[in-house]
Amino acid sequence: MDAVTAIQQRIVQIQSRIAELDPSRAGTLTAAASATSTSSPSASALAFGQVLGSVQAADATADVGYGAALVNADNVPYELVGYGNGKIPSSALSTISGTSHELWAPAARSFEAMRDAAARDGVTIGITDSYRSYDAQVDVAARKGLYSQGGLAAVPGTSNHGWGMALDLKLDDSAQAWIREHGGEYGFVEAVPREPWHWEYHPSN
Ligand SMILES: [Zn+2]
Predict the structure, then answer these.
(1) Predicted TM-score (pTM) of this structure
(2) Ligand 1: centre distance to CA 159 (Å)
(3) Structure confidence by residue, pLDDT tens digits, 79-93
């Protein structure tokens, strides 16, 4: 299946999701969907971005599974996969409020909701790292070594940080316990053994 066909199929799925969440917005997506049928991949990406914006608006009240329809089987957002791991422009990412850290937009919104819920419970969740460019992954691998060699870094170009889907968090004991209990409610998963600070956004979970 080519990229345009894949995007068209996602739009159909997403439209039904939006209709479910907010029927009043579903009709606005017809133009975006039809724009993908004959146009270039970049125009399709633009149309897809418009659809995503509508999903975010419609989905804003749903914390659990937020963005689940928007990732592929490898948990990579469809709207980012074309850029490549660690090659995503800042304009395609979203800043986590109150920080300079960037993630895929649904991951950023879900993190904010999780952080705010933790704060209401008197727990502070800090961030040490978020989206990581390819060059930064090379640097981390050089400093910390590869997993395969007993270190703490993914092979450059394969880290979930490179898709804006992972965070390294600053967690004291109470915050570690809190996120282990509640992280899943916001789509966050403790994904890597030996790295209790590393949390990934898996909206399908
Ligand atoms: Zn990490």
Answers:
(1) 0.70
(2) 8
(3) 999 999 999 999 999
